[in-house]
C-alpha cells in the first residue's frame, strides 16, 4: 500500500510543551470506519446511542477491498446489512433516519459507476425530506494509471468529473477524498451536517478506490468518542416579540405543526401552547400523528391529502403560525388553502425555510421558540367561538371517514384498507406509505393516539420507498411497522423484501392491487385526458390476454410470509395473521388485497398541474390560479 505522511504527521511531532502527538498508521478506509464507530448521539429521551448504528452495503471493485476490508475488521462492532439494490438499501437508511427522528444515521456504501448512480434517487428523497444519510460511493482512481477503468465514464471536457458528481445536486455536503489526510478537515463537516437541525440531509463522500487503500498517520484524537447533541437555538427576542404582537392582534389564528416539531421533540410543547392560548391546530404530512386525533383543538391534517375540516379552518384563519414546516404545495393546496389576507409567521430552525412566502421569520428550535412565544403571550387567549371551531369541523370529517369505511362494496376501497390497519394497530406501531393514492388515504383517514407513529414520504413521493424504507424503519422502531403500497410501487422496487427477510427484520406490507397506476389515471382522466398507459387495460401490448403478476407467489419467493384478501372481512383476518406471523417468524409478512381502483378520500382542495387548454380541466385550472396566493406579507 502507498503511504502518505503530511507535514507534522510524524509520530514525534507535537505541540510544544505537550509532548508528541500520538498517531496510528491506518488506511483511509480504516480511519473512516474508526471515526464512524466513535460517533455517538443523544436521543429525544436523553439516551446515548451510536450516531451510525449500521452500514448497508453492496460490494464491488470500487469498495470491497478498501472499505469492505475495514468494515470486516470491525464486524463485531457495527452490523453490516447486505442490500440487493443500491437504491433500496439507501432508501432503507432514509427510513431508518425518519424512524429515529434524525437522531441516528444510516451509512450506505456502493461500488463505482452504476452502483453509485443507483443511490442518487435515495439522496434526492433524503434531501427533499431533510433526512440525514451518509453515502459512501466508490470512485475511480485518482492516479489515473489504469484509465479508463471498468464502469468509468469519461466526460470529454472535464477530466476531474466522475459519475459521483451527480450527487452534488442532491447532497447537503459533498466531498471527494483524493488524499487520506483530507478526512481530518472533512469529517467534522460531515458530523455537523448530519446532526444540525437546520442543515440535516444527505452527505456524500466519494471514495476513490486507490485512496481507500492508502495509509496515513492519523492522530488518535480523531477516534476519540464524541456525543452529538443537536443544538436548540433560541430565536432572536425581537422576532419573538413581533410574532407575539401579530398573534395578539389576530381574531382567528391557526397553528400548523410540521416535521420540525417532531424532530425537536416539541409535540407536547405544541399541545401546551395551543391549550394555553386556545389556538386551533392542524398537521402537515411530516407532522402527522403529533396530536391525538380526538384532541378538541385538532382540526385535522392540512392540504390536498389532508382533511376538509383543516382546510375549512385554514381558509378562515387571519394569522397562521407555521412551526417546523416548509409549507409545500400539497400542504397549502398550491397556495389556495389560506385566505388572501392571511399573515404568516414561520418558526423554523432553518432560515432558508423560515423566510419563505413573505413570512415573519422566527429562526430557532421549535420547542425553544414555542416556549419563548408563550412567555410573551402570557395569559392571552383566543375568542372561544374560534377555539371551538376545530372540534366542530373535525366531527364532520370524522363522520365522512366513517361513511367511507362502512360503505358496502365488492372490493375494499383504500379508505377501508386504512381503516382495517388503523383498527388493528397497537399504540406503539408505526405506519408508512409514500406514493400514489395511499398518502391521501393515510394522511386524511388515520386516527392516531398522539405518539409519533407515521412516515408518509411525500416530499419526493418516491415509488419503492414503501418497502425499502420499511426495512430501515423495522430495524429502528421498537413497535411493529406496517407499510401500505400499490402494485405499481411493489413492481418498482421489491428486492429489499428479501434483504429484510434474510437479515431477520419483520414488518407487514399491505399491497393494494388495483391493476395499474390508479392515481395518475385519476389525474389524467379527471382533467379530461383520455385513458392511456396507466391502467393495464389502456397500455400497449401484443397479447390478447396479457400476463399479470402473482404478487403473493412473488413475495413468497422473496422469503416473506404471505396472506391474501378479497373483502374487508378477509382483509381483517389476513392482516391480523400477518402481524402475528411477522413477529413470530422474524421476517416480512405480505398481505395482498384487490382494491377498488377509483374510490378516493377527497379533501376538497386544488392542486396546480399543467393542464393543456383543450382539456376540460383547464377551466378548473384557471379558477384555481385565480385564487392562488402568490405572496404572503404584511
β content, as a range? Answer: 15-25%
CATH class of the largest domain: Alpha Beta
| Residues in helices, as a percent range | 25-40%
Span between N and C termini? 64 Å
- Name the strands of the widest sheet in spatial order: 8-7-9-10-12-11
Mean pLDDT: 95
Q: What would you say the CATH architecture of the largest domain is?
A: 3-Layer(aba) Sandwich
Number of helices: 25
Largest sheet: 6 strands, parallel
CATH superfamily of the largest domain: Thiamin diphosphate (ThDP)-binding fold, Pyr/PP domains
Radius of gyration: 26 Å
How many individual domains?
Answer: 3
Poorly predicted segments: 1-13
Structure report:
This protein is of the alpha/beta class and 634 residues long. The protein has 3 domains: 3-10 and 21-228, 3-Layer(aba) Sandwich (Rossmann fold), CATH 3.40.50; 237-393, TPP-binding domain (Rossmann fold, 3-Layer(aba) Sandwich), CATH 3.40.50.1220; 407-594, Thiamin diphosphate (ThDP)-binding fold, Pyr/PP domains (Rossmann fold, 3-Layer(aba) Sandwich), CATH 3.40.50.970. It contains 25 helices and 26 strands. It has a 6-stranded parallel beta sheet, with helices on both faces. A 6-stranded parallel beta sheet has the order 17-16-15-18-19-20. α3 (86-99) packs parallel to α5. The longest helix is centred in the middle third of the chain and has 18 residues, at 389-406. The chain starts with a strand and ends in an 8-residue tail after the last helix.
